[in-house]
Design brief:
The protein is α/β, with parallel strands linked by helices and 288 residues long. The protein is built from ten helices and ten strands. It binds magnesium ion. Magnesium ion (MG) is lined by residues 158, 184, 187, 211, 213, 258.
Length: 288
């Protein structure tokens, strides 16, 4: 189940993760202008999911492929590691139920716009399988997989908050055919969970999609701090090494650029420079 690659896309098509705005035509026009024709549609917790028909129409008119929908939830906060543990995904017990229900509606939205995958940060999964939070999140993951399977979709866990062996154990424990990962090499660095390229040796066969994102390791003197995200090529990932490794594991799906933590003008500049960097590296890879 490697490499989510819709029929009409080329190998390693460059894609972008973008947040759905109020006007789909406007959002897609910006992406088309910079040469992008597919991407992951990020849906914030307060996004109005009833506008799927408008999105479907706009995507068709722009000839743009939504490769996945990415769900975020109200109340999530990525300020530092303890705050992420407390607020993100299905770990906080108080919001677990409402977020699970929202997830099903996001899957419906994805199905309506033709997206074949849903991707979520499910939160910090405890390493101990007997932990009640571990059990609760595993059961939600199973139900989300089963619901997504009805629409023929995969469920991709966003990587980074667990080490590769812990994530592998969790994937095996959930034990669903349509479960995999959206591999984000920067997250492993930002959370200090391990070398992302080595992690692909462990997790390679579960890779459904990838984020091209960069960042630096957390400062050693601040144990709760996250590392800092950087524009692609400016952090510790080593994007050339990352693409080499993706080729080795046989990944052929889109290379989806992700950039967070900057304003919209800077976002566009950084995404454009990331597109250029990926184009250069793809050209180099083709010559080798
Ligand atoms: Mg990511």
């Amino acid at each position: 189940m490697q490499g989510l690659k819709p029929q009409n896309l080329h190998e390693w098509e460059t894609a972008v993760l973008f947040w759905a705005g109020d006007d789909p035509n406007e959002t897609l026009a910006v992406l088309k202008r910079i040469g992008i024709r597919c991407g992951q549609v990020g849906l914030r917790g307060d996004f109005d999911l009833s506008c799927a028909p408008q999105w479907k129409e706009a995507l068709q008119a722009a000839n743009f492929t939504a490769t996945a929908v990415c769900a975020a939830y109200l109340g999530e906060d990525y300020s530092d590691i303890p705050t992420v543990k407390r607020t993100v995904g299905f770990i906080p017990p108080l919001t677990r139920d409402v977020r699970e229900k929202r997830t099903y509606r996001v899957i419906d939205f994805g199905a309506a716009i033709g997206a074949k995958s849903i991707s979520i940060h499910i939160g910090f999964v405890p390493s101990e399988p007997g932990d009640p939070d571990y059990v609760a999140v595993r059961e939600i993951a199973r139900r989300v997989c089963d619901y997504a399977a009805i629409h023929g979709q995969t469920f991709a866990l966003e990587t980074g908050q667990e080490s590769a062996p812990e994530l592998l154990a969790f994937l095996r424990d959930v034990n669903r055919e349509n479960l995999g990962i959206n591999f984000d090499p920067a997250n492993m660095i930002l959370y200090g969970t391990g070398d992302p390229i080595e992690a692909l040796d462990v997790l390679g066969k579960y890779v459904l999609s990838v984020h091209c994102k960069d960042g630096d390791w957390p400062p050693a003197a601040q144990p709760n701090a996250l590392g800092q995200e950087k524009n692609l090529g400016g952090g510790a990932v080593g994007i050339e090494r990352f693409l080499d490794k993706l080729a080795k594991i046989g990944y052929s799906g889109p290379l989806t650029i992700e950039r967070e933590g900057v304003d919209s003008a800077q976002w566009l500049k950084d995404v454009e420079s990331s597109i250029q960097l990926i184009a250069q590296l793809k050209q180099r890879a083709a010559q080798n």
